[in-house]
Amino acid sequence: MFNAEVVVDELSQGSIGLAIGAGLSVYGTAVYGTGTYGSAGRRKAYTELPETAEGRTVWLKTTYTGQEAFKQFTYAFGLMPETAISALSE
């Protein structure tokens, strides 16, 4: 299980669960050709944040719960310019 929690201006935007292969077949236990197997390859995940995720500072808190080794390579936030002046700009 892998969860990401985005924090904007010290206010959590909630936890987002990202599918990383939980519940898939384990090699050696499924019938070949019928199971869906996870992989160790890199996986991309994209999720939109709520409109309330507006502020000046942002960070990402991640939590992994599992039995196997896990590597998180990188993350990035896509920023969109505002179409009008907001209360934060004043």
Could you describe the 3D structure shown?
The chain is an all-beta fold and 90 residues long. Helix content is 0%, strand content 24%. It has one domain. The protein contains no helices and three strands. The mean pLDDT is 75. The protein has a three-stranded antiparallel sheet with strand order 2-1-3, with no helix packed on it.
Key traits:
90 residues, 3 strands, elongated, three-stranded antiparallel beta sheet
Mean pLDDT: 75
Name the shape in a single word. Answer: elongated
For the largest beta-sheet, the strand count, sense and barrel status come to: 3 strands, antiparallel
In whole angstroms, the N-to-C terminal distance is 41 Å
Number of strands: 3
Taking Cα atoms only, what radius of gyration do you get, to the nearest Å?
18 Å
Could you spell the SSE succession in H and E letters? EEE
* Low-confidence region ranges: none
Q: What structural class do the secondary elements suggest?
A: mainly beta
